[in-house]
């Protein structure tokens, strides 16, 4: 657009919630936790406030290692089996009724000749795709299934995978325990078909990592915690916020200028102050994603913390009074 500074136009997608899997500020504690989880074969459980970097670690590890990536965002209706497979009972019943109706009219009708295969009503979950992508894609005798993350995984190694199970504390308390056997033994039985799914052996340089996050809205079972490597992530301090800002600006704008640094320092200090204000008012503290939103908005609109519009921008992006703390 004429009159606008072209240097402010980001080179990458403007979609705000795309996972920037090439950007993550690894600490020694996080790096060690990942290595311990891989060495023990245990899931890595990440605890911490929203915005502490829990969900973004998994796609980063997958990208850096060139491993396949899968994720499942847990809700209150999620069952443990959903991460393994789902079976479409409704479609199976509907097809059976169509077949029966066809047979009733004419034994040679096309509907009557169709053989119903239970395999055709099974949809592999994230752990199945991670354990054995070959069987998840199909057995060769029926329709082929498409990797739900094929755009990410098409050029990645079949010998490595990372699975993100996000916000497991939102599920029913029994759900984590239902995953103990599949995660611990790395196999499960598809009940409707009798098919046994086992994690395929990996070649040198491969591996398998399950990363689970919790906001600790609900206590997790002790039996589940005992089988995880557990790491608590703290909300980023001012220094870490600056490193995050610099990494994102290099990705999005291609540079992190002295003016950008000054702006980021102002906003990092403002964020830490706003966190304290939010807690005093019984509101949810702003997280790192909201810090980046405020930073990008300030850069695009040429606003700093001394601008008359800053207080309004802060309410729009950081101190959101319509979101009381739960």
Please summarize what this structure is.
This protein is α/β, with parallel strands linked by helices and 326 residues long.
What does this 3D model show about the protein?
This protein has 326 residues and is of the alpha/beta class. 42% of the residues lie in helices and 14% in strands. It is built from 14 helices and nine strands. The chain has helices at residues 28-40, 54-65, 89-105, 110-113, 126-131, 133-137, 150-153, 174-178, 180-185, 222-226, 238-252, 258-280, 288-301, 310-317, and strands at residues 44-47, 67-73, 85-87, 122-124, 157-166, 187-190, 195-198, 207-214, 229-232. A five-stranded parallel β-sheet has the order 2-5-8-1-9. Strand 6 (187-190) and strand 7 (195-198) form a beta hairpin. Helix 11 packs across helix 12 (258-280) and helix 12 (258-280) crosses helix 13 (288-301). The chain is elongated. The two termini are 43 Å apart.
List the helices and strands and how they pair.
Blueprint: H1 28-40, E1 44-47, H2 54-65, E2 67-73, E3 85-87, H3 89-105, H4 110-113, E4 122-124, H5 126-131, H6 133-137, H7 150-153, E5 157-166, H8 174-178, H9 180-185, E6 187-190, E7 195-198, E8 207-214, H10 222-226, E9 229-232, H11 238-252, H12 258-280, H13 288-301, H14 310-317
Parallel strand pairs: 1-8, 1-9, 2-5, 5-8
Antiparallel strand pairs: 3-4, 6-7
Helix pairs in contact: 11-12, 12-13
Features:
single chain, 326 residues, 14 helices, 9 strands
């Amino acid at each position: 657009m004429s009159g606008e500074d072209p240097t402010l136009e980001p080179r990458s997608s403007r979609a705000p919630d795309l996972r920037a899997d090439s950007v993550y500020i690894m600490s020694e504690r996080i790096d060690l936790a990942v290595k311990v989880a891989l060495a023990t074969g245990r899931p890595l459980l990440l605890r911490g406030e929203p915005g502490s970097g829990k969900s973004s670690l998994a796609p980063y590890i997958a990208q850096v290692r060139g491993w396949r990536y899968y994720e499942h965002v847990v809700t209150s209706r999620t069952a443990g089996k959903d991460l393994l497979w789902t079976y479409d009972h409704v479609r199976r019943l509907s097809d059976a009724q169509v077949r029966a109706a066809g047979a009733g009219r004419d034994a040679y009708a096309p509907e009557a000749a169709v053989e119903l295969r239970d395999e055709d009503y099974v949809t592999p979950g994230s752990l199945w795709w991670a354990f054995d992508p070959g069987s998840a894609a199909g057995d060769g005798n029926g329709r082929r299934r498409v990797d739900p993350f094929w755009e990410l995984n098409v050029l990645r190694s079949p010998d490595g995978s990372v699975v993100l199970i996000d916000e497991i504390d939102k599920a029913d308390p029994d759900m984590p325990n239902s995953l103990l056997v599949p995660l611990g033994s790395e196999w499960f039985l598809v009940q409707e078909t009798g098919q046994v799914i086992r994690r395929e052996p990996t070649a040198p340089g491969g591996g398998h990592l399950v990363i689970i996050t919790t906001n600790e809205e609900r206590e997790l079972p002790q039996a589940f915690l005992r089988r995880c490597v557990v790491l608590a992530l703290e909300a980023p301090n001012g220094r870490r916020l600056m490193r995050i800002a610099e990494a994102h600006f290099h990705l999005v704008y291609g540079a992190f200028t002295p003016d950008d640094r000054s702006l980021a320092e102002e906003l990092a200090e403002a964020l830490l102050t706003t966190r304290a204000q939010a807690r005093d008012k019984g509101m949810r503290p702003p997280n790192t994603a909201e810090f980046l939103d405020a930073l990008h908005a300030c850069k695009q609109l040429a606003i700093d913390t001394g601008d008359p519009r800053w207080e309004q921008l802060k309410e729009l992006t950081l101190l959101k009074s319509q979101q009381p703390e739960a």
